[in-house]
DNA sequence: CCAGGTCCATACCTTCAGGGTATCGCGGAC
DNA sequence: GTCCGCGATACCCTGAAGGTATGGACCTGG
């Protein structure tokens, strides 16, 4: 009748480990219990979720589809748990460099007694914090995966090249992307990437290269030994306000209004 | 640890009724059980959700906030079930003009957690939807091909002639079929027929002629510029409830009961 | 002012799902 | 053939969810 979130959580664990024994260990339950629960889930759903064999466990197509629904459901449930009991609080997330104070102040002033918090996000968790309820709304830099989210664009801002003050491009009024050919770009992209803007800039200062950042970010993190130069022909960075699509609270609606006007 | 969706569903029921007894009734459980479950939920969440008094129950602010999260969570959970293919869903088909709401409401109220859907059919697909499983039962207008179907007659209703308000027959108390001789009948029958009642009526309004419809259909689609007149000597339209003969589910049996009583 | 009604809580019982341990059966690998 | 990894089965125990009966607080009409 009702879906049992415990079983769903067990299912996700097995789907991730593709091994009942290790999944059971991760869940801190005995393996036979896990086997039984998964079987019970399959019975309830009248669908086979795994192909079991003594040499491995794999997801069936139905299992794969369930997994896609199960994860967001679990995060939504934990978001609910996180939010409940927390005193009347409204939390605004923001990416580094974005100035949220005016909007936050305005919301707070209109609702005395409401605790308005802010949470600085990173490139990696800017979407996650919305889904798991750590923030009610968040200022994000597009593009982000928009599944389960709603958003309104707020403004665009140009990107700049950040280089050492001694760099050949330092002092220029502006550059074109072609001027950067041959420069090593310091990016957050995957494997050996940098987790924060500070680290990126540190790297540029130490070892040269060029970091490409939205203007406000570059200004926010400006340092003596680095300068930034506008790049004329690169697509601007879009800043948007995003929130979970299943949440429709008056406060969120009001903040969206405020953010668009500020 | 895990949120219990059953308790959440109970919570929403109480929040909607603001009365433990009636909520329990709607959920088909005993009132003390509901009280205990809500209390357990409050303990688990460490938050008081309701203010109880012998003269009424109200949501606390925390309860109100939980309600905002609880509804979408339940929706997402049932969406998951539906997509996995287990959706506990019962779908009732109906021909235009027939009012199914009371019966549907009654079934839904007797089975909390059951998703009861309705599907409007047309003259062409009213049987097809039964066979292909789009509906579990359907209100049909006889005659229909009954192969593979079982049905119970529900009621008869007179047919009326729908004519422009300016027509010579408009305003009459009733007419006989013979009065219609010479009139062009606008019918849905095959090739160049009209696919919907709306189209038929549009045609009558534009180009004259007469449409013969069951009374309820004529009422449902009534327009300012058209009037309907009962036809005394034409066989009445029979409305029946039909279902696939190879399907014998308790829900179908129950709905048949309900439909006959309503 | 008391009788009855409404509403939620408490007490107590029964059932069953979920957790645990011990052990089996099946394949693949050495 | 033997061993090992992996999931399934068998059996027990506990606790949570369901039920009925009843209590206690509060309102309301006579």
From TrEMBL, chains A, B:
<keyword id="KW-0805">Transcription regulation</keyword>
<protein>
    <submittedName>
        <fullName>DNA-binding transcriptional LysR family regulator</fullName>
    </submittedName>
</protein>
<keyword id="KW-0238">DNA-binding</keyword>
<feature type="domain" description="HTH lysR-type">
    <location>
        <begin position="3"/>
        <end position="60"/>
    </location>
</feature>
<dbReference type="InterPro" id="IPR036388">
    <property type="entry name" value="WH-like_DNA-bd_sf"/>
</dbReference>
<dbReference type="GO" id="GO:0003677">
    <property type="term" value="F:DNA binding"/>
</dbReference>
<dbReference type="InterPro" id="IPR000847">
    <property type="entry name" value="LysR_HTH_N"/>
</dbReference>
<dbReference type="Pfam" id="PF03466">
    <property type="entry name" value="LysR_substrate"/>
</dbReference>
<keyword id="KW-0804">Transcription</keyword>
<dbReference type="InterPro" id="IPR005119">
    <property type="entry name" value="LysR_subst-bd"/>
</dbReference>
<comment type="similarity">
    <text>Belongs to the LysR transcriptional regulatory family.</text>
</comment>
<dbReference type="InterPro" id="IPR036390">
    <property type="entry name" value="WH_DNA-bd_sf"/>
</dbReference>
<dbReference type="Pfam" id="PF00126">
    <property type="entry name" value="HTH_1"/>
</dbReference>
């Amino acid at each position: 009748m009702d879906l049992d979130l415990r079983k769903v959580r067990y299912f996700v664990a097995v789907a991730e480990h593709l091994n009942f024994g290790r999944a059971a260990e991760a869940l801190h339950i005995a393996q036979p219990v896990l086997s039984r629960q998964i079987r019970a889930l399959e019975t309830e759903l009248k669908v086979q979720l795994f192909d079991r064999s003594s040499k491995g466990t794999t997801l069936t197509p139905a299992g794969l589809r369930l997994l896609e629904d199960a994860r967001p459901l679990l995060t939504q449930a934990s978001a609910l748990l996180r939010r409940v009991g927390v005193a009347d609080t409204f939390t605004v997330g923001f990416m580094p460099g974005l100035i949220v104070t005016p909007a936050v102040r305005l919301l707070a002033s209109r609702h005395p007694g409401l605790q308005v918090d802010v949470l600085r996000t990173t490139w990696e968790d800017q979407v996650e914090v919305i889904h798991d309820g750590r923030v009610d709304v968040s200022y994000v830099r597009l593009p982000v995966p928009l599944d389960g989210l709603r958003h309104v664009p707020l403004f665009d801002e140009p990107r700049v090249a950040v280089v050492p003050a001694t760099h050949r491009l330092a002092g220029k009024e502006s550059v074109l992307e072609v001027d950067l050919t041959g420069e090593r770009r310091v990016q957050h992209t995957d494997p050996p990437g940098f987790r924060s803007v500070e680290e990126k800039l540190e790297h540029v200062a130490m070892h040269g290269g060029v970091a490409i950042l939205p203007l406000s970010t570059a200004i926010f993190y400006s340092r003596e030994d680095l300068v930034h130069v506008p790049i004329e022909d690169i697509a601007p960075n879009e800043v948007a306000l995003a929130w979970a699509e299943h949440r429709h609270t008056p406060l969120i609606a009001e903040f969206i209004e405020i953010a668009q006007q500020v």
